[in-house]
Design goal:
Blueprint lengths: L7 H16 L3 E5 L27 H6 L1 H19 L5 H11 L5 E4 L5 H4 L7 E3 L2 E8 L5 E3 L21 E5 L8 H13 L2 E5 L10 H8 L3 E5 L12 E3 L3 H15 L1
Helix pairs in contact: 1-8, 4-8, 6-7
The protein binds nicotinamide-adenine-dinucleotide (NAD) and zinc ion.
The site of zinc ion has 8 residues, from loops.
Length: 260
């Protein structure tokens, strides 16, 4: 069994996380790229990080330079089909199981891969702080289109908005692009009100997203961090589990279910 790969110390710590989850509602899971590496999607800062190979496009350059937009769309045409073919892993499935059993209240994710929803999490139980690759947004009229829309000629070198002629882009937050204000505000408010935040697979180095667990801890929530490496918020965390996300969440789910 996958969970058998977890060291005893990790299991004991996860037992304590399970007890806190049952005692301190609401409970929020805050996830990052590390929860999806076991689905075959490289993370950002891990050893074989995705964009160590190609630098991501900055928002300002994207707006100002049509050539950069052309390169952006070329890269999306190359990469999106692979991302779209990925499946949720045991980590996503475990979080969804806890949500369905009403033992976990919300997922706030920095991921753009849509795998939480593919595992069954409904839109009312997730906030995607960095948007979603499976949608395209017009930066002018703000219309959202599904990635498989036939309203947009997606094979054009630089496609435009079919409604207003404006600049369109994957509905994800690029470097230098502001987050959707309402999503961030709501996340921070829910963090303030939470009893526990469980961070999974995030280096917690991307701002302002990493303010979510920080604000929660400052308002008295218990912080648990499941991550392969150290993070800058480790000193605020009551529980640190330096182990793979999938096995950890699968074990945690079993313990919470057993204790409920
Ligand atoms: P990050 O890449 O900065 O950090 C990921 C962390 O997860 C690392 O500390 C790594 O050691 C750890 N990790 C990797 N695999 C793990 C596993 N199986 N178990 C436990 N820990 C594991 O990710 P971030 O903090 O989410 O920030 C990256 C930014 O890039 C985010 O803003 C995100 O939007 C974007 N991004 C998204 C995806 C995705 O949607 N899947 C992938 C890459 C990058
Ligand atoms: Zn438009």
């Amino acid at each position: 069994m996958l969970e058998a790969s977890l060291e005893l110390d990790h299991r004991l710590e996860l037992d304590r996380v399970a007890q806190t989850m049952l005692a301190q509602r609401p409970v929020i899971a805050f996830t990052g790229a590390g929860i999806s590496t076991e689905s075959g999607i490289p993370d950002f800062r891990g050893p074989s990080g995705l964009w160590k190979r190609t630098a991501p496009t900055g928002f300002r350059d994207f707006l100002q330079d049509p050539e950069i937009r052309a390169r952006y769309w070329e890269r999306r045409r190359e990469r999106y089909p692979e991302l779209a073919s990925k499946h949720p892993n045991i980590g996503h499935q475990s979080l969804n199981e806890m949500i369905q059993a009403n033992l976990l209240d919300l997922v706030i994710t920095q991921n753009i891969d849509g795998l939480h929803q593919k595992s069954g999490v409904t839109d009312d139980r997730i906030i995607e702080l960095h948007g979603n690759s499976h949608q395209i947004r017009c930066l002018d009229c703000r219309t959202l289109f599904p990635a498989d829309t036939n309203e947009i000629p997606l094979d054009a070198p630089v496609p435009d908005c079919p409604r207003c002629g404006g600049i369109i882009k994957e509905a994800t937050i690029s470097f230098g692009e502001p987050l959707i204000e309402e999503d961030l505000r709501r996340s921070l408010r829910l963090a303030e009100e939470s009893g526990m935040v469980i961070v999974v697979g995030s280096s917690l180095t991307v701002n302002p997203a990493s303010r979510v667990p920080l604000v929660a801890a400052r308002h008295g929530a218990t912080l648990a961090i499941i991550n392969n490496e150290e993070t800058p918020l480790d000193r605020y965390a009551e529980h640190i589990i330096r182990a793979p996300a999938g096995a950890s969440l699968s074990y945690l789910t079993r313990q919470v279910m057993a204790g409920s």
